[in-house]
Amino acid sequence: MGALDGLKVADFSWVGAGPRATKDLADNGATVIKIESARRLDLGRLSPPFARGESKNPDASAFFAQTNTSKKSVTINLSDPAGVAVAKKLVAWADVVVENFGPGYMERIGLDFATLRAINPAVILASVSVAGRSGPLAGFRGYGNAAAAQSGQADMTGWPGSAPHMPPLAYGDVVAPMVLTVAILSALEARDETGQGCHVDVSQIEAMVHVAGDLFAEMPGDKPANDDPLMAPHGVFATAGEDRWIAIACETDGQWAALAAHLGIENRWPQLADRQGSADLTEVLAAAIASRPGQTLETELAALGIPAAMVIDGKGLSEHPDLLAAGHFVTVDHPVLGPAHMPAPPYDIPGAPVRVGPAPCLGQHNDEVFAGLLGMSAEEIAALTTSGALA
Amino acid sequence: MSLLTNITVVVLADHLVDFGAMMLARLGADVVLVDAAETTAPRRAAWRHGLRTFQTQPLSSGAAPPADLADLIGAADVLLEDRRSGHCAGISEIIAEITAANPRLIHIVATGFPAEGPSGPQRPATDLTLMAQSGLMHVIGQAEAPPLRLPGEQAYALTGIQVATAALMGLRARRASGQGTRIEVSALQSAALANYREAVMYEWTGRIGRRVGNRLVRGRSGVRQVWPCADGHVTWSMIDNPGMMRALVRVMIEEGDAGELAEIDWGNILVADTDQALIERWQAIVGAFFTKHSRETLGAWSLEHGWGLSPITKLTEVPESPQMVARGIFGPSETGHPIPSGPLFAVHGFDEKGGEGAP
Predict the structure, then answer these.
(1) Which of A155, A166, A196 sits opposite B354 (nearest CB)?
(2) Which residues pair with B226 in a beta bridge?
(3) Residues of chain A contacting residue B207, judged by C-beta atoms under 8 Å apart
(4) Could you give the residue numbers annotated as active site of A?
(5) What is the pTM of this model?
(6) Measured between alpha carbons, how far is A156 from A193 in angstroms, rounded to an integer?
(7) Is the peptide bond before A346 cis (omega within 30 degrees of 0)?
(8) A124-151 confidence digits (pLDDT tens)
(9) Which bin fits A305, alpha (ψ -120 to 50), beta or left (φ > 0)?
(10) Chain B contact set for A214 (CB, 8 A)
């Protein structure tokens, strides 16, 4: 059994910021029912890459599959009051309701927290949004990159003196769902102690602010790039091959001395203060590394106890021997994708193991949930399906 | 915020567990720092805020555990043990003796590399080398420059979040079993988990992501993400969201700056499949419009009309931004600069005294 066996989650979230948190819950044994609709597809189902290039097939997105492992899917049209009535039955069933809709949407369809609580007094509502559900930006509509922009992270990313940098990944869509998982688990802990549910309200901007706490405490005058105040050398260096780089971080004078000896460099910078900001050192080091095969150097330096690692790309990540050995990617059989690698949580709990199952096809569990779980009759389900409420 | 009021956490910190310990403290747990590796004053202020320091007699390997430390761990719910560099190795030996006496303890062990892999948990790791192995650095920065890490210590923060998650999962499992457990968390996996795009893109398309500056490449074309404006920069992208495009162009028309954009039926345009030269022409019109207006004006329009645009806030401006003030995020620190010492997230409808809000 998983750590969250018996936990019931009604998951109204979509795209990335909500589903990544409910994936954590589902992979740990919670029953997560994803409420979605063919009328307004989860944009994750439209996100590449697709199996066999089937971009029109809502079940062919590998992006969606890796974000929604181990869940069940039902289709409910939330723009139809009859659909909302069915959704309320899931609210009554659930311990936790999760949503990441635009501002005011849950209120407009009659699923605000007060209503949820009237249906299910101990329910936990978990929301994630760009700016949070209160404050002057509560109505802001945007994407994960807005969190990088308004948290100071974009301002601090890049090389010193350069304009703000926005890499092609929405880091706010990564950090915020991780905080959402913590929020849900801590709310459950509090409910177990007090009997009370609550509404946990995660802001992507705030999540990004919290993980940059050290920058605020220091308030550097410029971007730190790859530098570190306690380590030198501390950076990436080109190795043999095209776009091949090795990251090296010497934490101690001993590590530096070992590195210098290994590379045949005269140690003219024995103390940290000598090395910090030394352009000469960087130049000598770069020259000593440039023609070496990076992977070999990484192995040699790791054996010497020097923190060093190649800068890997998507291929390197996919084939990383340590990740594969640790079960970081689990091969899951999906009805449309076939056998596919899905990421697993970075921990395993003895006696309560993580189990990563396939992402659901759209509406795959309609019968199981509507008839089996909610006890709706076949006639009622058929009528609501025909009317478009369960679509 | 007091969701974890009755939880006691003991911490041996060497950077991998620091952020997780801070999170648990921020949630109301009593978090006790027994041993900690050296760090800078700003990092101490940020990552160890809210932690209680435990004073005991000097610890030495082979000696009997001090009674006060044995009592502390004997009564603790969670132990966060950091095995990143070996800094805490001495005290870890002592603590191993004590943990056996607490069968309800959730014992989290954080390592740089996972125990199961060829590198092994002893392999040295730092935030930089972990970021290098996450695949993220490969796509951060410009093609003509070396790979970059994200600002701050993001691999450590990502690991810390997973440490806190594992502790809370362990507590849930304990409610069912009545038993404690030992959970290993690897920083490599925690950092790799943040890379939601590069491995899956390679596996399904064979494409390898590269550094492309501030461009967002999707399908056949790439679009800008960062734009200069009258007093700084904003972020906005010409992505496939017709409602958002129409909302922006409507204001550009009112301002007399829409040009040919006014004639485009955005419902019939798939930006990802549009010719790059045409996108550049459209972006030039948008760029000229943005340069005429301030971040405040553009941000207000975005909030009102739903453009999805954000002003890019300077780090120094964030603590006093109205949203941060309204949500109570920043407080003073010993470094003299405000730090995000407020709640990790807002909690509504929870009565900490279990009064009227309780069912």
Answers:
(1) A196
(2) B235
(3) 314
(4) 173
(5) 0.97
(6) 41
(7) no
(8) 999 999 999 999 999 998 877 899 999 9
(9) left
(10) 40, 42-43, 46-47, 152-153
